[in-house]
Design brief:
Four copies of one chain form a homotetramer. Chain A has two domains: about 160 residues, Rossmann fold (3-Layer(aba) Sandwich), CATH 3.40.50.720; about 170 residues, Dihydrodipicolinate Reductase, domain 2 (2-Layer Sandwich). In chain A, about 35% of the residues lie in helices and about 20% in strands. Chain A is built from twelve helices and 14 strands. In chain A, helix 7 links the parallel strand 6 and strand 7. At the A-D interface, loops of A face loops of D.
């Protein structure tokens, strides 16, 4: 696909927080012509009316939300992003794929390789198991080459991205044990979506800290699938998500046991070097992963508004553990930014186009 | 000590956030006459001028901050609270104790039984090692009887309280393994004190999530001391504190491995019953510890402004772990409320006096 | 009514933010037995389950929400608080009053003396115009004596309280012109109630500042009624309410023109003295109004959690105006605290009972 | 100046919040080579170390803060931005101007035409009165043509921008009276700068609403200067700034009296049309001013992160007034974005370059 001819793109289910970011990024993308955005709720209104933050220039003033219609989208667009609830996304994807369109799905419908795991975690049979084999997990840092030729991209969610990016290189390199990993994540409220529910009201969230989704959060299924692939053996983690009063951002803290000892200063020095080298090899050239040196720890305010995942880590010789912390914008690297990064790979654009 | 004759109380170093809460509680305490509050910074000003939230009635309008002077305080007061930096507190405590006064110290100076551990974690020799043996750790739920006769109370900090209350009963009862415990805590910004430092500015904290104090936070020394006493063997934990944008509150999430298996529904049922019974035995009659039933998880907004520590827990049969979450107000149950609760025991008041 | 025999109290519509505060205050009130709380939504659940902040002790553990039933409440209770939407409240009040019960209404239904004004501002005919003449406007600082014998109290809302308390004494004393008054108020989000609506989600309110209800907010009707009574002539104000990201609190800023000149230092000195004297006469003995001296300006964080309205003011000789600022907790002095203050007057309790 | 040859730009005093935004914008500006940034505090550190949000790519990784040295900057740069305290800025500007450099000053030093007014409001003699006559007030919507040839630009502050943009067209067109204007502004905490002071700590600002700077805020001097020029007569306003807990953003609410009557529906209709036409004429082609139609009111969250000032308004026939509300990002349209917009005019770039 040439950069001269713009890719025609549509977004289905564009009225939530991820949808808003997706539309914003696509409107600013030099290789994209945004041909359609759909929303049952806002059909007939312009992007500018629904998203006053950025909807007042150029195309956004004209473009109107429409009712979702797979057949029409297959005619209009080369690439269709799906920002729909799980279950619904798969049904929408099938006709688009059959029409030869590229589908980039932000739901969980195509992230699992095994339909049985989907059923275990989501409580109903997978709506399109025959499509799973062609889906590529949309984490470019792990699956860049496969994404280049993909027709169906399963863009991962915010928790998986924040957990996989710090852990996969260490597991692949055998630097940490694959069992006993404990993960705590703190999520901003936009992670819950744009839903009018009591528990996400300002007065219920401000000055509130809470854990939720304990002990079996649905995203564990894809997280453990990818960690297991990285480790070469089944990985099961203890994961506790928390809701904290920021609008955007996820901070993830991982505690793991190195395979090497930390009993002497020499061992600490050696492992420090090996972890540094491991991350440098994995991410030294990555535009959207930033590994802090040993003194720094991530802060979500440094990544919110960007497509960057920041990683910091510390050895704890006293307990013989390593602590790794990651920070990302849950709506960008944790959702829409990453989906656009995948599109760039699929369509042959430079990977950072529209994301800097 | 009779409730008819009021106890004369002084607070040294009363101008921080904990000091403010302490003064507020003591002014409202029916058995207390607040005879002196000290602050180098605010000497000469009334409590009402410095703390406009509550300082406009009765005694608060008259009472003026004064320069700290141990001799004078020993004359004026029966009980002296110290809200001073570590190191300074011990020097202040000595003459007061020699004069026969009761000292309730909110610093870390008297929380450790072993001066060598103090030196390891605080980087300097303990300023008054000879006093350590008479100090009682001020966690009433663990040391109620010893507190009744105490002359020197070492009131624990916010992190230790939020970690010890959920863990000690399980360790004492042998329901969880003493190794491999992972603790993550989220602290409101008031935990950093009332210090004019850049990193605690509104614009640096709002919309910010960060880990800090990794891997060897100073409070680990007292936490591990008390956990080890509960377990009957040396306990070392992996602890990561985080700073999150709430004014008050700590949420602590503990992941631990039960000693019993969770492989069958029967085992899960049995352990559920044993943990329920364990917490009921430990806290069923406690006025300031609230154990939620199996469906509830704590939320700091439900405890901020109270002296209550809320505890919730879930078994995770999938990974064979138990997750325990606690929530408290870091300035009340995590500092000043608890110190007043200790005073109530020392002075023979009903334990909840002035705290409901 | 003697303090020995407790007053039996019921709260109708108790599940919102004001209702929550009302139940909390009444549970702690030494002269009250809370006999019933109603909520269609939560009928059958205990107060402790619905309000975990304070619902874990004593009566709150037993008391269950029930369906509202005026006849039953008339049997059970001496005093009934109505925390219902306008229109509904009046219908509920009628049978209670006919049964000889005291009604303290937190809605707008009985605040206006003139049913025609109600219809103008609320868009429908008043549901019980025959009751208006017996209602007493529940601002104790203005109507204390009439409240002592009242059977129907119309407790004012948060905006009116924050505007009337600073302005009425100045108008009564003729110190400011009654025309040209401009009022801006900033309200915390709890002022919008506990409604699951998109615009009050955390992500829509945090980092958001907005005006709303321009130009004819419904509460203007009662505000101007009371200002007109104070001035002895028709007063019309320019009022702009704003929504700002705090949970609780209202800050109101008034700009008005003194009747006396401010052209010389002598005139400024003279007016300063007259305003001080005016406020001292009006509020010097009031337990819940605090007038700051000339240097201080109110801050909502100093009054949130209390029943106090704080007032500060400055002369502006450059423009010949006076600026008056007030701060209150919108759920306490702006709603439930004030309603309890009224009940104390009606029932013969000391006015501060249960409110300190 | 051609766009082929990049303009060499330096920023003096770049370590505050405005400085941070300025450096970010200039690093992304296609016509700019950022040759130097100065900061006494951070001299020697890279931009990437001090501003981790954006400092990790390209030039930001190399560029180091240096000590400010006017002579060196005059050699290195064509355009120098000054983000310095008032008084200091003027001293720095003089040698740069003498060397033929363009100076864009973000302080208040060159905003007033009359040195006597400066002395009245700032309490000391103007440090460089001889330069005042060549300074151009940096509000492009008012002074576009003069800015094109300017050598010394006095970029206005956040309050003036948020007040002048809504008011100047109405005053110029004679649609509102020039006396009796009342202005209330709500400012985010970043407006106070990046200063380690107690009153701007998270715990002092979160859940706090307060007025300050009453009655004679320093910025009134430039606001009234520009309003008077627009009205053709001396304009004095009543202005009350407030501090509210958002990081960024200013919301300004103006109440003014139309010169035409609003007594009949016809008059309301006529004035509505005239105000619409007035704003359309003034801002219809402006890229950074957005006038909402009659139903919309501004919300800071829609403009934060952009260089846009949003304006909404309502007629109030009941009181015969007009209410105008504006919203802007105090660090962008209220400071650094506007300064870059000015630079674009001075240097002959398209006005929106680097700002979309």
């Amino acid at each position: 696909m040439s950069e001269l001819k713009k890719v025609r793109v549509a977004v289905v289910g564009a009225s939530g927080y991820s949808g808003e970011e997706l539309v914003r990024l696509l409107l600013g993308h030099p290789g994209v012509e945004l041909v359609a955005v759909t929303s049952r709720q806002y059909a007939g209104r312009t992007v500018g009316q629904v998203f006053p933050r950025f909807g007042h220039w150029g195309r956004a003033r004209e473009l109107r939300f429409e009712e979702p219609d797979a057949r029409r989208l297959a005619e209009l667009a080369d690439v269709v992003f799906l920002a729909l609830p799980h279950g619904v996304a798969a049904e929408f994807a099938r006709p688009l794929l059959e029409s030869g369109r590229v589908v980039i799905d932000l739901s969980t419908d195509f992230r699992l390789r095994d339909a049985a795991v989907y059923e275990e975690f989501y409580g109903h049979a997978h709506p399109a198991p025959e499509l799973l084999s062609q889906a590529v997990y949309g984490l470019p840092e792990l699956y860049r080459e496969r994404l280049r030729g993909a027709r169906l991209v399963a863009a991962p969610g915010c928790y998986p991205t924040s957990i996989l990016l710090p852990l996969v290189p260490l597991l692949r390199a055998g630097l940490i044990e694959s069992d006993g990993i404990v993960v705590n994540s703190l999520s901003g409220v936009s992670g819950a979506g744009r839903k009018a529910e009591l528990e996400y009201l300002f007065c219920e969230c401000a000055e509130s800290l809470r854990a939720y989704g304990v002990p079996k959060h649905r995203h564990l299924s894809e997280i453990e699938q990818e960690l297991s692939l990285a480790a070469g053996r089944r990985v099961v983690i203890r994961f506790t998500p928390h809701l904290v009063p920021v609008r955007r951002g996820i901070l993830t803290t991982v505690v793991a046991r190195p395979t090497a000892g930390l009993g002497t200063a020499g061992e600490v020095f050696a492992l420090t070097g090996r972890i540094e080298a491991c991350y440098r090899a994995a991410y030294g050239d990555e535009p959207f992963v930033r590994v802090l040196d040993d003194k720094g720890l991530p802060d979500t305010k440094n990544v919110v508004g960007t497509n960057v995942c920041e990683i910091g880590w510390r050895l704890d010789p006293r307990t013989g553990h390593v602590v790794v912390v990651s920070a990302e914008d849950n709506l960008l690297k944790g959702a829409s930014g990453q989906a656009v990064q995948c599109m760039n790979l699929v369509c042959g654009f430079a990977e950072t186009t529209g994301l800097m």
